[in-house]
């Protein structure tokens, strides 16, 4: 199994899943800092030009290619039988929260990060980004409110640890400072973030692909990856 990867929140969702599920995999680095996600060879795997992409083979040897991190998480959950419920009702609930992250938390958090950097760019008038920053920050805080309520009285988003947690955790872990102090404003999220961060598989996964990058590395100013 090959994971075409760079250590962004979307990439790290998949390294976390692979480590948690104990699946054998090979990392193929796609250096987005040098535009490798737009190379024709990678576009054959991910037509949208975004990491990650996964290449695997089924029992008959047929090649399986998947792009979009949510779809990859679902595939890995089916393949391993782990962190993805078998019952239809429970699986649909996990799917709903995966799509919630894909459609809302990830894109909105990324937009706040982008416009924060635009506003801080030397020579740029901060007013260039002020309206967009206000709009997206307000939406991210609304989404954190949704997650905070969901985690009330629960250790994980869907009750038991699942791919839904893996999907959202990487975004909260990297960009939580956008909404202020988690501990005072979103204590349920703060406890959930710490709980997952302490998992050995998550700690291993967070190191994947970081060799040679600054320890404080964050994704560069560019569209969501």
Please count the helical segments.
9
Strand order of the largest sheet: 2-1-3-4
Work out the helicity level. 40-55%
Radius of gyration: 18 Å
Total number of strands: 4
Q: Which outline best applies? A: globular
- List segments where confidence is low: pLDDT < 50 over at least 5 consecutive residues: 218-225
What does the model show?
By secondary structure, the protein is α+β, with helices and mostly antiparallel strands. It is built from nine helices and four strands; from the N terminus they run βαβαββααααααα. It has helices spanning 9-21, 40-45, 69-80, 88-120, 127-150, 163-175, 182-185, 187-197, 200-205, and strands at 2-5, 26-29, 53-57, 63-67. A four-stranded mixed sheet has the order 2-1-3-4, with helices on one face. A hairpin with a 5-residue loop joins β3 and β4 (63-67). The longest helix has 33 residues, at 88-120. The radius of gyration is 18 Å and the shape is globular.
Which features would summarize this protein structure in a list?
globular; single chain; four-stranded mixed sheet; disordered C terminus
Task: Please give the structural blueprint.
Elements: E1 2-5, H1 9-21, E2 26-29, H2 40-45, E3 53-57, E4 63-67, H3 69-80, H4 88-120, H5 127-150, H6 163-175, H7 182-185, H8 187-197, H9 200-205
Parallel strand pairs: 1-2
Antiparallel strand pairs: 1-3, 3-4
Helix pairs in contact: 1-3, 1-6, 4-5, 4-6
Summarize the structure in short.
Helices cover 54% and strands 8% of the residues. It is α+β, with helices and mostly antiparallel strands and 225 residues long. The model is unreliable at 218-225 (pLDDT under 50).
């Amino acid at each position: 199994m090959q994971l075409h990867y760079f250590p962004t929140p979307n990439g790290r969702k998949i390294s976390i899943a692979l480590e948690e599920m104990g699946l054998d995999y090979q990392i193929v680095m796609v250096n987005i800092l040098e535009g490798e996600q737009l190379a024709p060879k990678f576009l054959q795997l991910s037509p949208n030009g975004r990491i990650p992409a996964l290449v695997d083979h089924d029992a008959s040897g047929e090649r399986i290619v998947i792009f979009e991190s949510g779809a990859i998480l679902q595939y890995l959950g089916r393949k391993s039988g782990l962190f993805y419920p078998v019952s239809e009702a429970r699986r649909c609930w996990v799917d709903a929260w995966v799509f919630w992250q894909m459609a809302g938390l990830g894109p909105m958090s990324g937009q706040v990060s982008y416009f924060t950097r635009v506003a801080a760019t030397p020579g740029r008038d901060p007013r260039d980004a002020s309206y967009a920053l206000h709009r997206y920050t307000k939406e991210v805080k609304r989404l954190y409110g949704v997650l905070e309520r969901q985690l009330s009285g629960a250790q994980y988003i869907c009750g038991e640890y699942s791919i839904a947690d893996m999907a959202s955790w990487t975004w909260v872990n990297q960009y939580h400072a956008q909404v202020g102090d988690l501990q005072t404003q979103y204590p349920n999220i703060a406890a959930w973030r710490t709980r997952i961060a302490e998992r050995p598989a998550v700690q291993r996964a967070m190191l994947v692909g970081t060799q040679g990058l600054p320890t404080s590395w964050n994704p560069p100013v560019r569209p969501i990856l």
